[in-house]
């Protein structure tokens, strides 16, 4: 059930797919939405859709998660709009199967790694003081159900931006594993001061315009899968339910639980049921190494926790 008081919610990738549907639903429930989008034109179009049923006009904020300066600017803009942030949903991601060769950002990072992990990590750090100022703050990361087919996947610490192992699929799931591990680390670092969740999102039905934009061969190959995929509207409801829940991840982990059991409740499926992550996500030393590497990659921002 939604909170009685309106929440201030920031959602990345709010211009399409699940992010747009979640923003619509939360805005219609009286919550204040900050819609973070990379493309200003698509963002303005999405803002019209969100605000058509919003109790409070949503605010559009440009944010390119692959660009550290853009992330910092977005965090500054949000800080200028509100004194606290109740919920941050790190929804935006890139998974372009046509990118057969790696692309590198101006900072020297492979694009999938930069957009799907480093950008959300930096944004969460920069917004952590606003989250800490909220009475019941929450951070939601997003991973993928496709990871169930990769039980032995692990972070390639010595080759994070190495093009030698790149493929779109490998790069995407590598970054999604990092999102789970970051959620675990943040949950343990913040403890009772922050509710943390990471959603295991199944295959999502593409919007018609995104499907039409695919090369014809990919469109033909993807069509059967798209028909069987979960509608974005359904997952938007999941995002909204998680953003407004009254409990925390810790209700699933016993107070004396250790190891894997101590983290139960952070990683959830689309029905908000706790699920297991790949084995490497439970390696505390690997999580700490990932945190340190991510911190260094984004300029060692301070955290509120």
TrEMBL record:
<dbReference type="InterPro" id="IPR036291">
    <property type="entry name" value="NAD(P)-bd_dom_sf"/>
</dbReference>
<protein>
    <submittedName>
        <fullName>Dehydrogenase</fullName>
    </submittedName>
</protein>
<dbReference type="GO" id="GO:0016491">
    <property type="term" value="F:oxidoreductase activity"/>
</dbReference>
<keyword id="KW-0560">Oxidoreductase</keyword>
<dbReference type="InterPro" id="IPR002347">
    <property type="entry name" value="SDR_fam"/>
</dbReference>
<dbReference type="Pfam" id="PF00106">
    <property type="entry name" value="adh_short"/>
</dbReference>
């Amino acid at each position: 059930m939604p909170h009685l008081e309106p929440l201030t919610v920031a959602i990345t990738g709010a211009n399409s797919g699940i992010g747009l549907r979640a923003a619509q639903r939360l805005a219609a429930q009286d919550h204040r939405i900050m819609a973070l989008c990379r493309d200003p034109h698509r963002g303005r179009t999405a803002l019209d859709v969100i605000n058509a049923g919003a109790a409070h006009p949503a605010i559009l904020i440009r944010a390119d998660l692959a660009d550290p300066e853009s992330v910092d600017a977005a965090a500054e803009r949000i800080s200028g709009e509100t004194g606290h942030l109740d919920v941050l949903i790190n929804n935006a991601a890139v998974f372009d199967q046509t990118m057969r060769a790696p692309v590198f950002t101006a900072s020297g990072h492979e694009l999938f790694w930069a957009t799907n992990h480093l950008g959300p990590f930096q944004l969460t750090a920069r917004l952590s003081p606003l989250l800490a100022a909220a009475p019941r703050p929450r951070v939601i990361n997003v991973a993928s159900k496709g990871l169930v087919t990769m039980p032995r996947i692990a972070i390639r610490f010595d080759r994070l931006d190495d093009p030698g192992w790149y493929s779109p699929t490998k790069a995407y799931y590598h970054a999604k594993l990092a999102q789970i591990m970051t959620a675990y680390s943040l949950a343990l670092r913040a403890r009772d001061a922050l509710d943390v969740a990471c959603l295991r999102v199944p295959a999502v039905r593409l919007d018609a315009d995104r499907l039409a934009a695919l090369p014809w061969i990919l469109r033909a190959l993807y069509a059967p899968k798209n028909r069987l995929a979960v509608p974005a509207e359904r997952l938007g409801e999941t995002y909204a339910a998680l953003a407004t829940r009254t409990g925390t991840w810790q209700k699933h982990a016993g107070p004396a639980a250790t190891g894997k059991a101590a983290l139960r409740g952070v990683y959830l499926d689309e029905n908000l049921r706790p699920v297991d992550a790949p084995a490497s996500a439970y390696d505390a030393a690997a999580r700490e190494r990932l945190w340190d590497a991510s911190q260094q990659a984004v300029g060692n921002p301070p955290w509120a926790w």
